[in-house]
Structures are given as C-alpha cells and as structure tokens.
Specification:
435 residues; mainly alpha; 71% helix; Short-chain dehydrogenase
C-alpha cells in the first residue's frame, strides 16, 4: 500500500510538472523562447552575416577578438556590395556568390552566436563604406550607441517589411532586436510597438504581441491630446483630426490585442478578447468607420450574441470585399447559409472561425503597410543616410538571393566554370566547398 501511495504521488508530480504553464508571465516567457526558434534559419543568419560585415567595417580597434574572427572575411562581402548596381540591374557573378558563400559558411557558427550590436552602428558602417575610408570619426558609445542602434532596428523592421523578397521574417528579426522601453517616449515608439505587435501576432507569438499592445493602449489612454502625425500618415488617415486619429489608433490596438487573446487557449483569454472587440467597435462607431475589419468583428460578435439578422447583414457586406479571395468569399456565403439555418445555442462551425478572422485582419494590415512609401517617409523626417540604407538593404537582398540559388545545380556548375578560368587556386577553394 505504501508503494502504491508513493507511485501515485510521483505520478501526480509528473503530471503537474509536465502540464502547460497557465500564468501570463510563464506564457510570455515561452513566446520569447519560440521567437528565438522562429529566427533560427539560414536566410536570417545570412542577413545577419551581411549586416555584421557592414557594421564591422567601422571597427577602429582591429585587435578586438570579435573583429579578428570576422575581419578576414569582410573584404568579400564589401566587394560584393560595391559590385551591385541597383539602378542598372547589375548583380554579382556566380563566382562571387560562390566565394561569398564559402566565407559565410566559414563564420556561420560565429554569426549565429554573436550579437550584432557589439559592433558599431549600421550608419557608422555605411559612413565607412560610402565615405572617406581613410578618415576616422568618433564612434558612438554606451547609451548613445544603444539608442542609435535601437532606432536603426526600428527603421529596418519597417524597411524590410515592405521588401518583397525579405518581408516579415526579416522584419521579425529586426523587431526582436529592438527594445522599445529604451526609445524616447514619443509617437514613433507607439508605432514601432504596434508594428512589433502585428509581426508577433502574424508569427503566432500571441503573448509577446499582447504585451506590447497593452503598453500601447496604456500610453494612448494617458496621452489623449498628443498629436499623432506619423500615425496619420502610416495608416493613410490624412482626413482625420488629431482626436479622431487617436480614437482610430486606440481602437486598432484593441483590435489586434483582441485577436491575440482569441487565438490563445484559455477561456479567460477569449473573454478578454471579446471585451477588446467591444472597445474596438466603440471606437470605430465614434468615427463612423466601416471596413473589412469592422464587418468581420461585428459579424463574429453578433454570432456570439445569437443576433442572426445583424450577423448576416455584416457577413453579406464583408463578402463584397476585394481583399478576400474567391474561396474566402465562398466560405462566407456558406457561413451565411449556416447562420440562417442554425439553431440558437449551437456552436459556431469551422467555416467562420478565429483563424479566418485573423487572416482578414492580417490581409488588411499588410495592404495598409504595402501602400507606405517608407523611403519618402524617412527622408521627410530627416533620417540620415536614408538612400544608402535602402540601397544597402536591396543589395543585401540580391546577394542573399544569389547565395541561396545554390540549391540549383546549374548555378553551381556555372560558378565552377568561372572559377576554372580564374586559376587553380580558386578552383581548389571551390572544390573544397562543393565536396
């Protein structure tokens, strides 16, 4: 009997120990671990490799261990960047890409384990590359450096988000490097927090997203009379007053926090999410707004409240949206039929579910972000080296595409043939790489 009780006690301990954490803090910590896992793939590592190369070009004390590990591979990267001409469409040759890949593979482990922020800022690296390489200038240190590179990560998260071949995964990496609490308490901080929240949401990091959006909502509640010109430009709300812009942005933060909570697993989260949707609709009704988002949320809430007539009205309007694909419109049509025939109290079917709501929200936000001319916005706000930053991002994008093309045997053979023409020394290097 004693052994049976001991076994039962151990079994309970095991079950409790293996059960999912249920507190907000533990779930947030799990999301932070998942974020690291989401960024652990080759294209992100290569992007980081190129950034470290640019940043390390500004290093003045070349005896430092981190520079010694990376410095000898710097020349290949910088040559490749200089050999790309964005305006003419000129890219690097297969031979250059092959040698660049060899350098990348040599330091890949170092890149993965190294925080790029130990190097000078990106702008300082660009200054060194595009300016006078023989002249020296004082590098930023301590708090000034932390603030500058934080702003760089924030800017780049928005720049790469609009880049077709980079997009969300790379923006997620840049967002992961930002520390909004270290940015000045300003409107741009709330915009960054919102973009981070959206990116975390679209990557299923709901607790990280909720955490940032909650900070935004609290800030907006405390700063109701602050002008929001960048927010107005960001969302294309040029016809709204400052007060209306505040209301609209307040509502959209509630909306995405509601989506976060709706995709969580606990009952309390769904209840909180529906409360957030209520707040969102209160704000949009003050403004008289009707969009895909308001219609989607209205229809969901009316379905939850068993208000069949209002649910069908909202769904019928939503079905006309150009943002939706034919299959999604067909799904809504099926939902309308289902709602009309559905008995009161029956659960919602799988056609119109939480995931479907999230997809509509994501499509809407991406359509908003795609319309923003980030280069013009940054130049209008006197961000230094805007043109060089964009040119560098496009060049890194082209280099990344060239290097990743080594899944193609034809490209590898072409690279080998070019290397043969350059002599046996280079050929030996290619052979060792391609074994």
């Amino acid at each position: 009997m004693k052994y049976n009780l001991t076994f039962l006690y151990l079994f309970i301990l095991l079950v409790c120990g293996c059960s999912s954490p249920s507190t907000d803090e533990k779930l947030l910590a799990l999301d932070k671990e998942k974020l690291t896992e989401n960024l652990a793939y080759d294209k992100i590592t290569f992007y980081k490799f190129a950034k470290i190369a640019i940043r390390s070009s500004a290093v003045q004390d070349t005896t430092k261990p981190e520079y010694q590990k990376f410095g000898k591979h710097l020349k290949t990267v910088l040559n490749s960047l200089s050999n790309i001409n964005i305006d003419s469409g000129k890219s690097i040759s297969p031979m250059e890409a092959l040698l660049l890949y060899k350098d990348y593979r040599t330091v890949k482990g170092f890149v993965k384990e190294t925080d790029e922020d130990i190097f000078p800022t990106l702008v300082e690296g660009i200054n060194r590359i595009y300016g006078d390489r023989n002249s020296s200038f004082p590098l930023l240190k301590d708090d000034e450096k932390t603030k500058a590179q934080n702003i760089e990560h924030a800017i780049l998260s928005m720049v790469v988000l609009a880049t077709r071949d980079l997009g969300q995964p790379f923006a997620l990496y840049e967002c992961s490097k930002t520390q909004p609490e270290l940015l000045p308490d300003h409107e741009t901080k709330t915009l960054l927090e919102f973009v981070r929240g959206f990116l975390f949401f679209s990557n299923n990091l709901f607790y990280l997203s909720e955490d940032g959006l909650t900070r935004n909502i609290n800030w907006l509640d405390k700063n109701q009379n602050v002008p929001l010109p960048y927010t107005k430009a960001f969302f294309g709300w040029r016809n709204l007053t400052d007060s209306q812009t505040h209301t609209a942005f307040h509502g959209i933060n509630y909306l995405f926090r509601g989506f976060d909570r709706l995709r969580m697993e606990r009952e309390i989260d769904e209840k909180r999410g529906l409360d957030d949707f209520e707040k969102f609709l209160e704000d949009t009704k003050k403004l008289g707004l009707e969009t895909e988002l308001t219609l989607a949320i209205e229809s969901y809430l009316y379905l939850k409240r068993e208000d069949k007539e209002k649910a069908v009205t909202a769904l019928s309007k939503l079905k006309q949206s150009p943002l939706l694909s034919n299959s999604e419109k067909e799904a809504i049509a099926k939902t309308i039929v289902y709602v009309n025939d559905r008995e009161a109290g029956k659960a919602l079917n799988g056609v119109y579910d939480k995931l479907f709501l999230s997809k509509i929200a994501t499509k809407y936000m991406i359509s908003v972000l795609a319309k923003i001319d980030w280069q013009s916005v940054l130049k209008a706000n006197n961000v230094p080296h805007t043109d060089e930053i964009f040119a560098t991002v496009h060049k890194v994008q082209q280099i990344s595409n060239a290097v990743s093309s080594y899944t193609s045997e034809t490209t590898v053979e072409k690279g080998k043939n070019e290397l043969k023409k350059k002599g046996s020394e280079l050929l030996d290097g290619a052979k060792s790489l391609l074994k």
